[in-house]
Design goal:
heterodimer, A: alpha+beta, two-stranded antiparallel sheet, 56% helix, B: alpha/beta, Rossmann fold, six-stranded mixed β-sheet, 8 helices, 10 strands, 28% strand, binds adenosine-5'-triphosphate, binds magnesium ion
């Protein structure tokens, strides 16, 4: 039979059986669409976690006192006073991969402004701190090196603190607040950062010179952490080892001595979270796989249910001169038209519903090209195979047996 | 003597069902010449349909030889048999076997779809002609479920005609129809035969068989009787003489 005739025959057969065609397509559409949507949600949340973490500074390297066994008692890192200001100096001098470095000391307490008060944390840091933590000033300014040297009573505050003390939308620059009875002048406000991955409010902070916190609030000389940033993300490992060497030298540790500090990078955090969200994606993928299976079984069912009717049709076509190959080609073309059309509709529906889900729930959505390709290939393959296989069986029968099939 | 269309000798057909062998045909010898109108009679299970299916190349004999229009059927492969069915044979079934939800015209066109040498214009023309020949020119776009049984069988006859076969094989073509419609169909077959078509017609009813030119009677897979019919009865005339109540 001519190919043009085959197309005509296949099309008219589909037209004759619109409902069956629709049901077959439905299985494929649901299979494809659900796989795409599920994996889009999984992939989207993974990407959003990653971008949140890198917005915290993915090239950040933090040195903290090590937790140590002391007389059998495990001591928390923050109780140990192993980091000093000269360590900061050592890092900034001896680590070529490090671009910025800042000490950090923390003090918790109430901030008071007039009648309002609010419990928060006062971070004493260097001028480079904002750069390292990827924070931005919204209004006012950051304090200067000069103010650090003088232990000036100036601070920049986060949005939450502003809201709690002054109300929403008020610009507090120039106003004074008290922290543990020390009056401090607000010289800048930080841009909003929202919650971090752990649900911690990153806007509930006060930032001032570390000298101010050391001398005027805590009366200490050591520091609690060193924040540094590598020149770029690739150099974090390099920066880590340089800092280790620098700190060991500065602490005069001998070969074989344990480090009395620990170094953490943001990269480790990214990796941990990626593996968690990978599990999420696998889970959603499994659900999607099941819907693909269910869709596939649906396609199979509808194809097999129609076999009786179609076997008689095949018998008739053979009795008027249709060859086995003509009949196979007809069924193959039918199945291909249905499956490909269903697959394309499924892709559109999957992508469309992903973005609808995304905009309704506010979940991040990222359609994976591999999911689109995979689900399309699997579904159309199932459709084509189960459209073709019964036809292959029937076209091998004697015409009379196909005509009498029941 | 005119050309032999069908020449069958020592034709046997066994069906194996489980461990029982059914001998449906036990050595049939039969010659049918061009222009004959042959009816095959016989009790139920005597092998009539089996015979016709083999003549129509829808089934293969267990043994024996079969020459159709000079070509030997034994040893042909499936594609060659399909070609033969497509170009030399027309089949009319008791249950019409039309494609559902497909217009009368498209149903009649069906055999020509499988003939690559027929253009789509020619296909349409010939299908229209065939429908005209069976008196259904005004029903070309009707679906099978919009046609009466008699009309559906006419469509099926048009389909069997459209490829201009050397022989039309009909298996109880009037079996599902009332008396009046049966005579209408027989009148159509007689007309076709008059125009020179060779027809083999399986039936149960002696009244119908009398309208053909030769009656072959089967019993238990053998030919019991083979006689010429010289009555010259015309179905059209019987139709006129039928009382009107009979149409119910
Ligand atoms: N596919 C088959 N498998 C097994 N046995 C069969 C098959 N087809 C026919 N037979 C047997 O062959 C014998 C002849 O059957 P056939 O259909 O030719 O009879 P028939 O003369 O057409 O009868 P009827 O007048 O009832 O149609 C019967 O005994 C039947 O049971
Ligand atoms: Mg029969």
């Amino acid at each position: 039979m001519k190919i043009i005739n085959l197309m005509k025959v296949a099309l008219s057969a589909l037209r004759r059986n619109k409902f069956r065609a629709f049901l077959t397509m439905l299985g494929i559409i649901i299979g494809v669409a659900s796989v795409i949507a599920m994996l889009a949600i999984g992939q989207g949340s993974k990407q959003s976690i990653q971008s949140q973490i890198s917005s915290m500074g993915s090239n950040m390297v933090i040195a903290m006192p090590a937790s140590q066994q002391m007389g059998g008692v495990m001591q928390g890192g923050s109780n140990i006073q192993s980091l000093e200001l000269y360590d900061v100096e050592a890092v900034s001098k001896n680590c070529p991969s490090v671009s910025h470095v800042s000490p950090e000391v923390r003090a918790s307490g109430q901030v008071v402004s007039g009648t309002e008060n609010w419990p928060t944390t006062f971070y004493g840091v260097g001028a480079a701190y904002l750069e390292i933590k990827k924070m931005k000033i919204e209004s006012g300014r950051m304090f200067t090196e000069q103010e650090v040297k003088k232990a000036a009573k100036v601070i920049v505050v986060g949005q939450t603190v502003v809201e709690e003390l002054f109300g929403k939308g008020v610009d507090p620059v120039g106003k004074s607040i008290r922290f543990r009875n020390v009056p401090l002048k607000i010289i800048g406000v930080l841009a909003e950062k929202g919650e971090n991955t752990f649900g911690q409010d990153q806007d509930d902070v006060i930032i001032g010179p570390y000298t101010t916190v050391q001398k005027r609030i805590l009366a200490i000389t050591h520091i609690q952490a060193i924040f540094a940033s590598a020149k770029n993300e690739e150099l974090t490992d390099q920066a880590t080892s340089e800092m280790t060497t620098a700190l060991r030298a500065s602490h005069q540790l001998r070969e074989g001595d344990d480090d009395d500090f620990q170094i953490r990078t943001q990269k480790e955090l990214v990796n941990t979270f990626s593996s968690i969200s990978n599990i999420l994606t696998i889970l959603l993928g499994a659900i999607a796989g099941i819907s693909l299976l269910v869709g596939g079984i649906g396609i199979m069912n509808i194809m097999f249910v129609s076999v009786t009717e179609r076997t008689r049709e095949i018998g008739l076509r053979m009795s008027v001169g249709g060859r086995g190959v003509d009949i196979l080609m007809q069924f193959l073309i039918e199945a291909m038209l249905l499956s490909v059309l269903g697959g394309v509709i499924g892709i559109l529906l999957g992508v469309g519903s992903s973005s609808v889900i995304g905009s309704i729930t506010g979940w991040p959505i990222a359609v994976m090209p591999s999911a689109v390709v995979l689900s399309f290939v699997v579904c159309t393959f199932i459709g084509i195979f189960f459209g073709w296989y019964p036809a292959r069986k029937a076209s091998g029968l004697n015409p009379i047996d196909a005509l009498r099939f029941e | 003597m005119s050309k032999k269309i069908i020449e069958v000798s020592q034709l046997r057909k066994d069906f194996v069902v489980g461990d029982i062998v059914v001998h449906a045909l036990r050595g049939i010898d039969l010659v049918i010449s061009e222009g004959e109108f042959v009816s095959i009679m016989g009790t139920s299970g005597s092998g009539k349909s089996t015979m016709l299916n083999i003549l129509g190349c829808l089934d293969q004999p267990t043994s024996g030889s079969y020459l159709l229009d000079g070509s030997r059927i034994g040893g042909m492969n499936r594609n060659e048999l399909a070609r033969l069915r497509n170009q030399k044979l027309g089949f009319v079934f008791q249950s019409y076997n039309l494609l559902p939800r497909t217009s009368a015209l498209e149903n009649v066109e069906l055999p020509l779809f499988y003939n690559a040498s027929v253009s789509s214009r020619e296909r349409r023309e010939r299908a229209k002609e065939a429908l005209h020949a069976v008196g259904l020119s005004d029903r070309m776009d009707h679906m099978p479920n919009q046609l009466s049984g008699g009309q559906q069988q006419r469509v099926a006859i048009a389909r069997s005609l459209v490829n201009d076969p050397v022989v039309i094989l009909a298996d109880e073509a009037t079996g599902n129809l009332d008396t009046r419609t049966s005579y209408e169909i027989m009148s159509l077959f007689q007309e076709l035969n008059q125009k020179g078509k060779t027809i083999v017609f399986v039936t149960h009813e002696p009244d119908i068989a009398r309208l053909t030119g030769r009656s072959v009677t089967f019993r238990d897979g053998h030919i019991l009787r083979d006689q010429q019919i010289t009555d010259g009865l015309l179905a059209r005339e019987i139709l006129h003489s039928l009382p009107v109540e009979d149409t119910v």
